Amino acid sequence: MAVVRSGIVIVLTAAALACATPPTDADVESDLRRLSADVQGLGPSPRLVVLNAGSSMDAWSHVAESRADGPSTRARALGRRFAKGSQRRVGIVIGGPFPQLNDRMVLDALEAAGSGPLPGLTLVMVSPEPPEEQLRIAALRRRVKLVHRRLPE
């Protein structure tokens, strides 16, 4: 009987998480602005990049598609902005409520930015979880200043 109850609790929890409404893009943008206000090196008007999805399943499908097909059009455009960090100071604040989507987009953008160092790039990731190790290593290798700010859940 305890096993059945545990199973029901797990199913109900999963259903609740799947149905949870993510914050609006405007809410995320407000959080990006607020949480990055104290970061040195962003410059007077950093670029804000909201990464959001309709649900965790939608975010997961974007991540899976990126892993299969390579950087998206949006990641390539972001990569062109990152690449400017090779020659001048560039401040970007990026993030949203889905950590895997955040990490994947930044990794793809770094890939799209070429292979050289980006010492002028200051990147603030606003996410419920810190960047994964693969991303931290990629940023370190490219000489990107990577700062994490925790997005409240």
What does this 3D model show about the protein?
This protein has helices at residues 2-19, 25-35, 56-69, 73-83, 99-112, 133-141, and strands at 47-50, 90-95, 121-127, 145-150. It is an alpha/beta fold. A 4-stranded parallel sheet has the order 1-2-3-4, sandwiched between helices. Helix 3 packs parallel to helix 5 (99-112) and helix 5 packs parallel to helix 6. It starts with a helix and ends with a strand.
Unreliable segments of 5+ consecutive residues: none
Which value, in Å, is the CA radius of gyration? 17 Å
Please count the beta strands (DSSP E, at least 2 residues each).
Answer: 4
Quote the distance from N terminus to C terminus: 33 Å
Biggest sheet statistics: 4 strands, parallel
What is the overall silhouette? globular
Could you estimate the helical fraction of the residues in percent? Answer: 40-55%
Overall mean pLDDT stands at 88
What are the secondary-structure elements, in order, as H or E? HHEHHEHEHE
Please identify the structural class as seen in this structure: alpha/beta
Multimeric organization: single chain
- Give the percentage of residues in beta strands: 15-25%
Count of alpha/pi helices: 6
Strand order of the largest sheet: 1-2-3-4
